[in-house]
Design a protein that fits this description.
The chain is built from six helices and eight strands; from the N terminus they run E-E-H-H-H-H-E-E-E-H-E-H-E-E. By secondary structure, it is α+β, with helices and mostly antiparallel strands. The chain has an eight-stranded mixed β-sheet, with helices on both faces. Bound molecules: coenzyme A. Residues 39-40, 43, 108-110, 115-121, 144, 148-151, 153-154, 157 line the site of coenzyme A (COA). Coenzyme A is lined by residues 39-40, 43, 108-110, 115-121, 144, 148-151, 153-154, 157.
């Protein structure tokens, strides 16, 4: 077993594929992010830099290095989400802690053009199954702003357990925002996969 089990990795189900970030993702990543400012900004970490500065093509190489380094050192599993072979979003497994806690938090976004097709529930199910089976984690957490009804549906579809309400928890879109915490521990799956909790996985239209 490597010191950072479960990374690098490639996961797939139906038309959804997750893989690590690449240099050539930069152009598409930037195009989607710039086009989706109104869709994404309210759920993103606060920053002193403008949306354009943060998401231009030139912002990708330094971000890629940071993601790759975090993947190598085992603090993150930074996945790109592809749908039908096209890059459509990201799913970051962050705050990976081993030892007695063996936990992580997962964050995600997709292009508005592919929203509502079950891409993220499928990606999250794949990632949870991978974190339990290959990374050796025991608990996965997802923190969601109470206003984010679409994201609340994602964890509801997978049956994640509501754990609590964190006041002024994360610095998002210019302020400390309350979050609802959801989690699942490996025992709750009772030997089944998270993917099997979904009625189906997205295929191409
Ligand atoms: C939250 C998000 C990741 C969900 O991804 P997804 O792949 O669309 O997930 P689903 O297909 O399961 O859709 C979830 C809900 O989004 C809503 N939705 C569906 N299509 C939509 C659209 N075109 N526009 C807006 N909301 C839509 C529906 O309420 C849907 O629930 P339903 O299936 O019960 O109708 C996505 O909406 C997104 O990227 N939002 C912006 C970033 C964000 O909020 N990230 C999460 C921070 S915690």
């Amino acid at each position: 077993m490597s010191s950072h089990p479960g990374w690098p990795a490639q996961l797939s189900a139906g038309a959804v594929l997750l893989r690590g970030p690449r240099l050539r993702d930069g152009r598409t990543w930037s195009e989607i992010r710039l086009r989706n400012e109104m869709w994404l900004l309210q759920w993103e970490p606060s920053s002193p830099h403008s949306w354009v500065e943060r998401n231009s093509v030139t912002a990708w190489p330094p971000l890629l290095s940071a993601l790759r380094k975090a993947g190598r050192t085992g603090t993150m599993l930074p996945f790109m989400i592809l749908y039908g072979g096209r890059l459509v979003g990201q799913m970051n497994v962050s705050n990976v802690v081993h030892g007695v806690l063996r936990s992580c938090t997962v964050g995600y976004w997709v292009d508005r053009d592919v929203a509502g097709r079950g891409v993220v529930p499928t990606a999250l199910a794949l990632v949870i199954d991978h974190c339990f089976a290959q990374v050796g984690l025991h608990r996965i957490e997802v923190d969601i702003r109470p206003e984010n009804t679409a994201s609340l549906r994602v964890v509801e579809k997978l049956g994640l357990r509501r754990e609590g309400y964190y006041e002024r928890y994360l610095d998002i879109d210019g302020a400390w925002r309350d979050h609802v915490a959801f989690a699942v521990t490996v025992e709750e799956l009772q030997g089944r996969t998270m993917l099997s909790r979904l009625p189906g996985v997205p295929q191409l239209p």
